[in-house]
Amino acid sequence: MNEPASGPAFRNPALPVAERVDDLLGRLTLEEKIGLLHQYQAPVARLGLRPFRTGTEALHGLAWHGPATVFPQAIGLASTWNPELVRRVGAATGEEVMAFHHKDPQAVGRNVWAPVVNPLRDPRWGRNEEGYSEDPWLTGVMATAYAQGLRGDHEVLRTAPTLKHFLGYNNETDRFVTSSNLPPRVLHEYELKAFRPAIEAGAAVALMPSYNLVNGRPAHLSPLIATARSWTDDDLLVVSDAHAPGNLVDPQGYHDDLPQAYAHAIKAGLDSFTQDDDRPAATLGHIRTALDRGLLTEEDIDRAVRHVLSIRVRLGEFDPATPYDHITHEVVNCPEHRRLAREAARQSITLLKNDGILPLRSPKTLAVIGPLADALFEDWYSGTLPYRVTARTALSGRCPTLYCEGVDRIALRTADGYLVAAPGESGGPLRVGPERSGFDLFDWGGGAHALRAVANGRHVSVGDDGVLVNDKPGVSGWEVRETFRLEERPGGVALRHIATGGYVTVADGVARITADPEAAAVLTLELIDSGAARAAEAAARADVAIVVVGDHPLVNGRETEDRADLWLPRRQGELVRAVHAANPATVLVICSGYPFAITWADAHLPAILWSAHGGQEYGNALADVLFGDADPGGRITQTWYRSAAELPDLLDYDIIANDATYLYYRGEPLYPFGHGLSYTGFAYSGLTLSATELTPRDTLTIAVTVRNTGPRVGEEVVQFYTHQRRSRVKQPLRRLCGFRKVRLAPGESRTVSVDVPIAELAFWDVTRGRFVVEEAPHRVMVGRSSRDIRLTAAFTVKGERIPPRDLGRPLDAAAHDEYDGVVLCDAAVDAGDAVRATCPGAWIAFRDADFGPPGAGPARCLLTVASAEGGTLTLRLGDPLAGRVLGTATVPPTASRHDYVQVGMELAETAGVHDLYVVFENEGVLVRTLEFLR
Predict the structure, then answer these.
(1) Residues with catalytic annotation?
(2) Known PROSITE patterns for this protein (predicted)?
C-alpha cells in the first residue's frame, strides 16, 4: 500500500473518525482483527498498534491500582442532587485514570467501566450502593453528568465511559440464571429510560450487558443491544461482563458449546470478550472455530472490530498528541481533589430527622460511639484510601470527645478450654488454652459476624488450609473469609464460616474448618465486656452522643449477595437503644450503601443523619454538617420503607403491577423519595405555568419562588413532579420531571424554573408498540420531596386518544395489558418475546379489543404456540374465570419451546368492544401471537 507523505490515514487526526477506522480496518488481517475482540487486545507491531485493555474500574474514583482519591459511593453522589458536582467528580476521576495510565499503560486502560445506571428498584439489591436512584430520569441525569466528566469536554476522549449493566439487573441471588421479567411498559418507561440519556448525549461511549437473562434470553444476546446503538450516530463499544460469555453454555445452557455461543454474542452486538482473564487464547480459538463452522463471517468480525477501533481512534491513541499528555501522577489525590472529595461528601449528607438538636451548639463534650465511628471502609469498587478522616478524628478536633466502639468483647470457650489468639502483628493459628482470650464481636447484619482478636487487633480469618488465624487488618477481598454465622446448638453455638460453609472445630488443639456439621465445636460465648453498656456509660458523661452505625460494604449486601431484610444489624440496634436510654440527646448517624428500616429510631431519637460511605473526607464532611458549618445538602434518591414486607419479591421486576418504587407505591414510607431536611425553613409561592393547554410538540415551563424563612443560610432542592390524572393505563402517582438546588441567605427569595418537554410525558402504548402522549389532564406538584408537596397546578395535554385494539392485525401476546401467573420468555433464540404460563388458570388480558359491528366479527383465531406437554387455551370475554367463552384450542406437544405451531379455534359470534382474556388451562404452554380472521 502506497502511503501519502503525511502517513497512513488512521493516524491523521484531521480526518473523520469513520474514515480513519476504515483505513485501519483495511490494513488488518483476519487474524489480527480476531485478536482485537478480547479484553486484552493483541498488539499489531507491523502497524505500530500497542496492546489495548478494556475495563478500568472508576465508579467513584479510580479503583484497584493503589491509593487514589476516593469520593462518596455512587448513591451518595446522586444524593447531592448536584449534577455539576457529579460531573466534576467524574472529571477528577478521569484525570487520575490518565495519570495512572501514563505511569503504566498496560495495567490501567482508558476504557472505564462506569457509571452503573441500573435503577434502584429494590433496596435489598446487594449492589444498591453502585447505582444512583430508583427514578430512571434522575439516574439518567446523574449518569450523564458523571460520564461527561470522565470523557472530558474535548473531541478527543479522556476516557471511554461504559454504562453497566444492561439490562434489568437488580438481584445478586442466582444472578447468572434468573430471568428479569420486563413487560413492555416496564422495559421502555423504566429500564431503557435510565440508559438512554448518557448514550444519546455522547457522554458514554460503551455498554456492558448484565449477567442475568431478560425475558428468558441472556442479556449478552439481547436484540436490545441494537436498540441502544440506535440512540447515537457514533459507534458504541459493547464489552462483556467478566466471564459472562462462558455462562452462555454453563450455567445458562443457552447454547451447546462456546463457538456457537460466541458467534451468537458477536452477531447480537458484543465486541469485546471479558473472558479467561488475561489469557485470550481460548476465547479467540472459539471465535476461529465459529468462523470455520460458518457460524460467523468476516463481515461479522469487521462489524465488531469497527466498534473497537472507533473508540481507540477517539481516545487519540493514533494521534501525534492529545490534550491529556500533560497529566502526571501529581494530580492523584492532589489538594483540589481532596477539597472536591470533602465537598461531595458534605453535600451528600442527608438529614432525615431533626427536632432542633442539630446543628450542635458548642457542646462541652461529645460521646462518639459505634462500630463506624472510627472506621472508613472501602467497597469492592472503591479505590484504595490514601488517608482516612473518620467521624472520631474530625469531631475530636472540634471539642473534647469520649470514644466507644460499642461492640461486645467475648471469649470463646470450648469443652477443653478457650480459643486463644496469638500475639504479634502476623498473629497465628487459634489454639485451645486455659487462659481467656478476648475477641471483639462485630455484627454486620444478615447473620454475619466478624471477630477481632484483642491480642493483636487483627481479624480472624480462615486460611486455605482451613485453619483459623488472627492475621487480617479487617474484612476484605472478593471472597470474604473473615465472617461467621452463630448457629444455636444445645449448650452453646457453632461457628459457621460463611465463605466455605464449613464449621469451626478443634483438632489437635487448633481451630480449623470442617465440612461435617456434626463435628462442629459447641462453643460458649462468654461476655467479657458489654459494648452497649460501655457506650451507655460514655454517653451519660457527655452533652451529646453521636452514634455511627451502618453496613460493611463487603458484608450482607454486596456483589453476589442480596439482603434478606431492611433492619439494622441486631447488635447495632441494641447499641442505639442503650445509648439513647443513657442520654436522650442522641444523634444517630447512618453510613450505608442502602436504606434501613429504622422505625424505632425515627420514633424515639431527636435527630438522624444518613450518608453513603463518604470516602477519605467523610469525617470532615460530617463534622461540617453536625456543627452547622454547612447545611445538610443531601436528599435521598430512593424510598426508605418501614419493612421489607412492603416490597414485592426481589425477583419480580414489574414495578407497575406491584406498586413499587415511589412512582407507584401507595403506602406510607418511612422517608419518601426526595426527602431531606435543612437547618432553616423554606416557603414556596407563586407557582406559574407557561401554558395550561399544550400539545406534544410544546414545552411547559414551570416556575416557583422559594424563600428562606429561617435565620441561617440554607440549601434547598426544589423538586418538580407531574401526574397524569386520566389515562387508558395505570399511571405513576408522581413522576420527577425536574429539580433545582439553590442556596439562599436568610430572607432571600429566588424564582427557579424547569422546562418540561411534553413529549417526555409519553408512555409506552402496548396496543401499537410505541410511545404516545395521551390526551389528558395533568397536575404539576412542587415541593421538598415526593410527598412534601407545597404547591400544585393543573394543565391539559391535547394529545392522542388511544383507540380500541385493532383485531385486524396480529396481537403480540407479550403486549398484553394485565396478567396473572405468566412470565415473558424468549420466543426465538435471536429475538422476540412469548408468554408462558407458570400455573393452570394463568391468563393475559387485552383491554378494549374491537370485534367490529354485528355480523362482521372474526370467525376464527390462529394462535402461534409451543408446549412440551401440550395443553388447552380458552378465550374469554370480560373475565378470566366466569367470562363468556369465545373459543377453545388444543395445543399439541412441540419439539421444543422454540418450535412453534399454529393452532386454530372457531369463535362464537361477537361484536363490539370487549376485554379479551387468553386463559392457559395448563402450565408450560407458550403463546407468541394471536391472529383473528374475519
Answers:
(1) 241
(2) CBM6
Q: Which H or E element spans position 749?
A: strand 749-757
Residue-level pLDDT at 2: 56
Integer Cα distance of 270 and 274 in angstroms: 10
Using the structure block, give the residue that is written with the C-alpha cell 394529545. Answer: 799
Across the chain, mean pLDDT equals 97
Which residue is it, cell 473526607?
617
Helices (H), 840-904: none
pLDDT tens string 570-591: 999 999 999 999 999 999 999 9
In the three-class reduction of DSSP (H, G, I as helix; E, B as strand; rest coil), residue 100 is classed as helix
CB contact at 8 A, 291 and 312: no
Q: Is the C-alpha dihedral spanning 390, 393, 399, 401 positive or negative?
A: positive
Cα separations in angstroms, 771 against 150, 323, 661, 680: 32, 41, 22, 42
Helix axes 192-200, 136-151, angle to 10 degrees: 30
**Helix or strand holding residue 365 (H, E):** none
Exposed/middle/buried for residue 794 (C-beta within 10 Å: 0-12, 13-18, 19+): exposed
Residues forming a β-bridge with 719: 739, 783
Residue with cell 367463552: 885
C-alpha cell belonging to residue 342: 470533602
Burial zone of 694 (CB within 10 Å; 0-12 exposed, 13-18 middle, 19+ buried): buried
Helix and strand numbers (H, E) in the chain are 19, 49
Domains in the chain and their CATH numbers? Answer: 30-55+105-322 (3.20.20.300), 342-405+531-646 (3.40.50.1700), 416-521 (2.80.10.50), 680-797 (2.60.40.10), 805-933 (2.60.120.260)
Torsion angle defined by CA atoms of residues 176, 178, 184 and 190, in that order, rounded to the nearest 10 degrees: -70
Q: Which three cell numbers stand for residue 897?
A: 419451546
Cβ-Cβ contacts under 8 Å for 392 (sequence gap 6 or more): 368, 373, 374, 401, 403, 619
Q: What is the pLDDT of residues 703-720, one digit of tens each?
A: 999 999 999 999 999 999
Reported as a single tens digit per residue, the pLDDT across 1-60 is: 556 656 899 999 999 999 999 999 999 999 999 999 999 999 999 999 999 999 999 999
Query: How many other CB atoms are there within 10 angstroms of residue 881's CB atom?
Result: 9
The pLDDT score that the predictor gives to residue 3 is: 65
